[in-house]
């Protein structure tokens, strides 16, 4: 074999080796649809801006700048104001509040003057064994209202009177009247001969109690007492 022939064989073998090392990629048919592998994420939305995502927000339309709980619902926040309660007890069949309560009037008036927009709710009660219950309950509420208005200058328009008859029962007086023992009224019946005054800078109407806090304080009176005008 001459040199020329050897070169031809060498070239042929090299070409075959190159062909064997190449990797071929076949283009897919044009009729097969192509899909892009794109990762999609669902947006986390808080529509009302209360910090609770819509997917778990049980109160989806809370106003801006309000305090909410983990469910996205308003938390009842009570600002400073007046919530006052007074209870005074009467002798049987009497609508004249004993003089022992004169100091209490001064305390009530001081608070009411500090909160001139606070509303006053006065509830008259009677014992089951007292006669003329309707008029007696009303007279007890009115005596407190008139004393506050005529003797202490509290605007009568701020005060609302209610007849509770004997619908709201009281047995323990220790937490509601420090003067009760001094009155020597120890019977169950005497504990029902009373007047209850509540004053609030937040509550406007007992028929529209919005929060649980106020329902607890006023709910029983709203249910069992009848408002009347003097």
Question: What's this entry about, in short?
Answer:
With 230 residues, the chain is α+β, with helices and mostly antiparallel strands.
Strand arrangement within the widest β-sheet reads: 1-4-2-3-5
The strand count comes to 5
**Strand and helix order:** HEHEHEEHE
Helix content: 25-40%
| Rg, nearest Å | 42 Å
- Note the gap between the termini: 140 Å
* Low-confidence blocks of residues: 1-25
Label the overall shape. Answer: elongated
Q: Beta-strand level of the residues, as a percent range?
A: 5-15%
Please count the helical segments: 4
What integer is the average pLDDT? 81
Largest sheet: 5 strands, mixed
Q: Name the structural class.
A: alpha+beta
Protein architecture, described:
By secondary structure, this protein is of the alpha+beta class. Helix content is 28%, strand content 12%. It has four helices and five strands. Strands 1-4-2-3-5 form a five-stranded mixed beta sheet. The longest helix has 20 residues, at 133-152. 22% of the residues are buried. The model is unreliable at 1-25 (pLDDT under 50).
Topology record:
Layout (H helix, E strand, L loop, with lengths): L2 H19 L61 E7 L12 H13 L4 E6 L8 H20 L6 E5 L30 E7 L11 H13 L1 E3 L2
List keywords for this structure.
five-stranded mixed beta sheet; alpha+beta; 230 residues
């Amino acid at each position: 074999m001459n040199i020329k022939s050897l070169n031809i064989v060498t070239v042929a073998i090299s070409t075959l080796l190159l062909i064997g090392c190449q990797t071929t990629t076949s283009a897919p048919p044009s009729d097969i649809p192509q899909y892009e592998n794109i990762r999609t994420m669902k947006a986390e939305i808080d529509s009302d801006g209360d910090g609770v995502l819509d997917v778990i927000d049980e109160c989806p339309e809370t106003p801006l700048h309000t305090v909410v709980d983990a469910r996205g619902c308003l938390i009842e926040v009570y600002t400073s104001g007046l919530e006052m309660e007074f209870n005074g007890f009467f002798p049987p069949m009497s609508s004249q509040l004993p003089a022992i309560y004169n100091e209490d009037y001064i305390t009530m008036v001081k608070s009411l003057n500090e909160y001139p927009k606070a509303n006053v709710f006065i509830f008259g009660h009677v014992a089951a064994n007292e006669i003329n219950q309707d008029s007696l309950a009303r007279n007890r509420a009115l005596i407190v209202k008139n004393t506050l208005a005529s003797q202490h200058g509290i605007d009568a328009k701020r005060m609302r009177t209610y007849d509770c008859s004997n619908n709201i029962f009281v047995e323990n007086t220790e937490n509601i009247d420090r003067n009760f023992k001094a009155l020597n009224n120890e019977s169950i019946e005497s504990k029902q001969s009373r007047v209850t005054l509540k004053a609030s800078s937040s509550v406007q109407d007992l028929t529209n109690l919005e929060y649980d806090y106020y329902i607890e304080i006023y709910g029983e009176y709203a249910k069992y007492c009848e408002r009347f005008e003097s």
